[in-house]
Amino acid sequence: MALGKVIINDVGPRDGLQSQSKILTPDERIALVTALLQAGVRHIEAGAFVSVKAVPAMAGTPEGLAGLQGSAGSADAVFTVLVPNARGYDLAREAGAKSVCLVLYGSDGMAQANVRMNRQQAESMAAEILQQARTDGVRVTSTIAVAFECPFDGPVEPSMVSELAGRLLELGTDELCIADTIGAANPLQVRFLMSSIAGRYGADRLSCHFHDTRAMGLANVFAALESGVRKFDASIAGMGGCPFAPGASGNVATEDVVMMLEQMGFDTGINLDSLLRAADLAKELTGTAPGGRASAWLRHR
Amino acid sequence: MALGKVIINDVGPRDGLQSQSKILTPDERIALVTALLQAGVRHIEAGAFVSVKAVPAMAGTPEGLAGLQGSAGSADAVFTVLVPNARGYDLAREAGAKSVCLVLYGSDGMAQANVRMNRQQAESMAAEILQQARTDGVRVTSTIAVAFECPFDGPVEPSMVSELAGRLLELGTDELCIADTIGAANPLQVRFLMSSIAGRYGADRLSCHFHDTRAMGLANVFAALESGVRKFDASIAGMGGCPFAPGASGNVATEDVVMMLEQMGFDTGINLDSLLRAADLAKELTGTAPGGRASAWLRHR
Hints:
The structure is a homodimer.
Chain A: E1 7-10, H1 12-18, H2 26-38, E2 43-48, H3 61-70, E3 78-82, H4 86-94, E4 99-105, H5 108-115, H6 119-136, E5 139-145, E6 149-150, E7 154-155, H7 158-170, E8 175-179, H8 187-201, E9 206-209, H9 217-226, E10 231-234, H10 254-264, H11 272-286, H12 295-300
Parallel strand pairs in A: 1-2, 1-10, 2-3, 3-4, 4-5, 5-8, 8-9, 9-10
Antiparallel strand pairs in A: 6-7
Helix pairs in contact in A: 2-11, 7-8, 8-9, 10-11
């Protein structure tokens, strides 16, 4: 049964590693990206153009990106880098980045904690970068963080997220990622919000980002799939977290998401055994990566 | 948002304990049942009328059942006992059982391993007990084990399960439970099978039983909910397994299922904090109960 393709964007090398206590060297980060490429992962969040002083885990992003983009076997890969502001975008463009990720917010509280702006200010900034990126021919993912619930401001109004999504899609974002940054969403909420956005604007450019804090990560992936979403963020070995959300555990593990998708009959283009080797490497390098929830079964099968 | 009631049948005191290495005393088992009752659980698989020599974990079922059925505060509770054959049914009836569970099979391989019959023989036996139970006024749950995949015979044909379900519903079973005994089902399969059965026969008497071996337990609960199912087996602290399915981990944990249902807006009538105390007791008594997958978050919240 072939149900079509689903794209996995592995955010482990950026989102995942940024929340591990041990800081990897740039070379170790490249080794992890390479292991993901070898498993067939073609979309990877590979770094961030942020202050190295504030986020030492992202040191060496410019050089790493240049190396990856020039490497053999990565011609069809999409390496995305996070840019927090216009300065970050300029640095990314100078470093030759072909795909960037901008972050927007479902709440003022999280926008304030992350970038010291309210969410309208964050949106204005993102809109400007997005328009510049279109001129530059740079691919853009616009991520709406805390799209369901914020640790500071509580539940987020779905209609507000849906309208923000609409504005970003109209501005021409190549991808619109709805993120449950703290792992608070339940599958009924996901079904409601994603169906609503897909119904209004189509599902072609949508993606979702889930955490497994409340064990609902895969249920949420399924609910989004049913709503037409065919691209998902996931993090190798379930790395991740959220500095502002106490108790928020890792992103949904890439190996769990790929296992479920492949068993349902979707084509991810990813080899599970090679992916488990990448998960092993993530665990070995960090010492803290939890590993997917289905690891025991996956290794037994 | 009130979406209506969902019934949880906690199978921990039978299905769960039977697969723990430490055998509890009948009094310890009663203590676990009592903790579940105190949390608001009203449907409990409380024992089995099987050979105590073969299954020592179920010793004391007749006395325990009598005590539970006569106890204060359990007037509205449904205590179900497993009966593997006509002899077990007779013993259960003599002990005053008001609700029994019969097991049918999606495969010959599992029927052979469990009761040394093929699945048609198991069905004939169940049909006879079911008719007797109707005469006796005893409530019956008919469970179709390995309804998706069998560890011996591989994938199970959905149409076969759907037809078997139809025959059992026509025979008047009070509940028809579709069981993914080894935790192999994915939510798309669940959606397909449960929608098909619900479409043909209605969802009123349907329930589902999932394991979390591949981390898809909650996704499968959601898929069944979307198909109209409003009753689920779950096991306190995620206890369970399957002796014939290497790598099969526990049943979906009651605390995870209740958390998801309540967060979605369903009414389970269960208090999560009291339920966590029951999970603690299960862990304390057995030493091996894994606990729900969302335990860390549930205890932090």
